[in-house]
Amino acid sequence: MLLPVVIYYIVFLYFPMYGLQIAFKNFTPAKGIWGSEWVGFKHFISFYQSYYFWRLLRNTVMISLYELVFGFPAPILLALLLNELRNRIFKNLVQSVTYLPHFISIVVVAGMMVDFLSGDGLINQLTGMFGIPSVSFLIVPDWFRSVYVSSGIWQGVGWGSIIYLAAIAGIDPSLYEAAKTDGAGRFRQIMHITIPGILPTVIIMLILRFGTLLAGGSLEKILLLYNSTTYETADVISTFVYRRGLLQMDYGFSAAVGLFNNIMNFILLVSANAISRRINNTSLW
């Protein structure tokens, strides 16, 4: 049973690492990987010294921090609130409504955002009723991060709460009964039983999130939402790699930038895991 999974990872994840060497070569498809000229760390140095380096790094980190600060706690809060609902019909309705956006294609979500946030879109029509001036949100750089992260929360909060609801279901019910006997109300039960009970799961998910801190969100979604007027805040490392590698066909340079990004994510993941293991004995390995 394990063999197909092992083969999948070897063929599609480990074997392609052979091509990472083009990050150190002036790669041209006609010459192939072995025939291309070896240039060492030229692409890495060029990226570091480029005009775009600090802007890309800042935007990538800022979008990830927005997601970490606002997006990461959202499914936890939703799971805690759903757990407190006693009306099963209403609870199932809320779960269904919050789960559904997860199954909507990113292309469809991006299209909805473009329609709703345009100068004459639904949002501006509603705010215009209160005398608020119209704003074309997707062409104003200062609005991009908020729009991107808030739409991501809407799409993923319900689906993300499933793992925390499962963790809550694993808490021993006798702890709640003992707390009630001691006079603890609902809020104290959440603070002293529910949250400590799901804390190991929260920490594991947080460590995994640190492993994608420099991913800068979903590449497809950013490509669908950003434009040249919002590059100042929307252009991240992954979109830069896409433009430089696929559109400009500079494969060696884009591979170097992508390798740099993945190495930094790996360092962050290992560091977060080590810190968590030392502080509270909870870690991935």
Automatic annotation (TrEMBL):
Q: Where in the cell is it found?
A: Cell membrane; Membrane
- Can you name the source organism? Paenibacillus alba
Q: Does the keyword Transmembrane helix apply?
A: yes
The membrane-topology field of this record reads: Multi-pass membrane protein
For this entry, the protein name equals ABC transporter permease subunit
Q: Which UniProt key words apply to this protein? A: Membrane, Transmembrane, Transmembrane helix, Transport
Name the InterPro entries for this protein.
MetI-like (IPR000515), MetI-like_sf (IPR035906)
Q: Which residues form the ABC transmembrane type-1 domain?
A: 57-272
Entries under SUPFAM superfamilies matching the protein: MetI-like
Q: Which family does it belong to?
A: Belongs to the binding-protein-dependent transport system permease family.
Q: Which domain of life is it from?
A: Bacteria
Segments traversing the membrane: 6-24, 61-81, 93-114, 126-144, 156-176, 197-219, 251-275
